[in-house]
Amino acid sequence: MSQSQRPANPSAAEAAAAAGAVAAAAAGAPLGAGRAAVGTRLDPWLSSYAERTRSMTASEIRALFAVANRPEVVSLAGGMPYLPALPLDVIAGIAQRLIAERGAVALQYGSGQGEEVLREQIVQVMREQQIHASPEDVVVTTGSQQALDLVARVFLDPGDVVVAEAPSYVGALNVFRSYQADVVHVPLDADGLQPQALEEALVALEAAGRRAKFLYTVPNHHNPAGVTLSAARRPQVLEVARRHGLLVLEDDPYALLGFDGDPLPAMRSLDADGVIHLGSFSKTLAPGFRLGWAVAPHAVREKLVMAAEASVLCPTSFGQLAVAEYLSTYDWKGQVKTFRELYRERRDATLQALATHLPMTTWTQPKGGFYVWVTLPEGLDATAMLPRAVTARVAYVPGTAFYADDQGRQHLRLSYCFPTAERIQEGVRRLAGVVQAELET
Ligand code: PMP
Questions:
Q1: Fewer CB atoms inside 10 A, N or C side of the chain?
Q2: Torsion angles phi and psi, residue 190, rounded to 5
Q3: Which residues of 359-375 are buried (b: 16+ CB within 10 A; e: fewer)?
Q4: Backbone angles phi, psi at 62, to 5 degrees
Q5: Which residues contact 21 (CB under 8 A, 6 or more apart)?
Q6: In what order do the strands lie in the sheet with 371-375?
Q7: Measured distance CA(130)–CA(40) in Å, rounded
Q8: DSSP code of 14?
Q9: What distance separates the 2 farthest-apart alpha carbons in the chain?
Q10: Are the CB atoms for 371 and 413 separated by under 8 Å?
Q11: Ligand 1 pocket residue status of 287, Cβ below 6 Å
């Protein structure tokens, strides 16, 4: 599929989430009295909204992303998997047979915890990361995004603290924000979250009489930072968490998309009692199925199922049965390998283009996944620069989207998963022109 055949609004979900977050961070203050008065005329229900909607704000950046989705713009913004690489004929056959032969089951309500046939397959998938679980331990969710929402719903009261990497996945920050939690950021480096910094943050919180409810971490091929928590640090992070009575929320949709060898053992494989592990079929198969999962300590899992039933009754029966059939009859590991090879080529193209065109910046070295995190020269502001980049027909997500506070102006996230290597090179070349112009003004 050529770029000009792309769907009209390809990166909408991620970009919109980022847009909301950027707006929230940029706006700083919640709605003031003056704006509320204006808003009353525009929205007669303004005074009825729950407190938690205060963080749900639209932004000019959302409008910019609409422009960024035009075919002439190279979008390095959204994290869309490259679905033209899927065996669509195989999936079509599965869907067709499912309806023809088992339609009355596939289109019926199902269990809140998810279909057992799929949970059995998920257990097999998790073996790739050395997680040993049984199907009863698994809760199927509507993407891992819903799992994030369920965990937040189960654990967070307004004012509670979540510890999260700096930077963090924008969609998770939006969830924590919507439950009115305070996010305390802990820095990461090329080897992922820094255990010592985590220790210090927890000590500081305790000294202030506060206790964090959980640590949110993306250990593999981090979104947006593109780094992986090293094997050596995994037990160290868990040890710090254990000592402080901190639950770990391991959000892990990119684990199988590593470019160099087998995935590292999941945090969950090292501590089954202290870790909630989230997985997803969005990156290894297709996000349109909206299927992910959570594996949690027993009592937590019960709460998650009850929260899920209140939220969606049950995940899609049709989708679950289709994915279970795909996993049990198709070479899904071969398909993941196809994705890995494709993304490796695009990662290489991105790093090469950065070295050629943007030597005045620095960037991370992703060993898998979709993202590279770029640091601009001192004094440049990726949020302020975005409109000029879009005018130059290239789009990215500014770093501020990935922080709960006002950090991140000097950073931007590039996604290399969707555009071809040639488009990536062209996009980075255009970006370099914009950065050069910023440096000269
Ligand atoms: N977590 C992370 C780190 C992600 O990058 C994403 C998707 N961009 C999600 C969760 C949500 O994925 P899904 O709901 O499609 O499983």
A1: C
A2: -60, -20
A3: eebebbebbbbbbbbbe
A4: -60, -45
A5: 170, 173, 174, 177, 400, 401, 402
A6: 362-363, 371-375, 411-415, 397-398
A7: 54
A8: H
A9: 66
A10: yes
A11: yes
Residues 322, 289 contacting (CB under 8 angstroms): yes
Q: CA nearest 282: which of 13, 7, 4, 8?
A: 13
State the burial class of residue 54 (Cβ atoms within 10 Å of its Cβ: 0-12, 13-18, 19+).
Answer: middle
Find residue 277's DSSP bridge partners.
Answer: 250, 295
CA dist 308 and 210 (Å) reads 29
Q: Is the CB of 78 under 6 A from ligand 1?
A: no
List 216's β-bridge partners, or say none: 164, 249
* CA 38 to ligand 1 centroid distance, Å: 36
From its phi and psi, is residue 112 left (phi > 0), alpha (psi between -120 and 50) or beta? alpha
Q: Rounded to the nearest whole angstrom, what is the distance from the C-alpha of residue 370 to the centroid of ligand 1? A: 11
The CA distances from residue 326 to 38, 132, 143, in Å, are: 52, 22, 17
291, 143 contact by CB (below 8 A): yes
Q: How confident is the model at residue 60 (pLDDT cuts 50, 70, 90)?
A: low
Query: pLDDT for 19-29, tens place per residue?
Result: 544 443 333 22
In contact, 90 and 330? CB cutoff 8 Å = yes
Q: Which phi and psi (to 5°) does residue 37 adopt?
A: -65, -45
Ligand 1 contact, 81 CB (< 6 A): no
Q: Return the SS3 of 134.
A: coil
- In this structure, what are the phi and psi dihedrals at residue 382, rounded to the nearest 5 degrees? -65, -30
Give the number of other CB atoms < 10 A from CB of residue 259.
16
Token representation of residue 205: 């919180």
Amino acid identity at 141: T
Q: pLDDT value at position 355?
A: 98
The alpha carbon of 436 and the centre of ligand 1 are apart by a number of angstroms equal to 33
Phi/psi of residue 76, nearest 5 degrees: -105, 25
| pLDDT at residue 197 tops 70 | yes
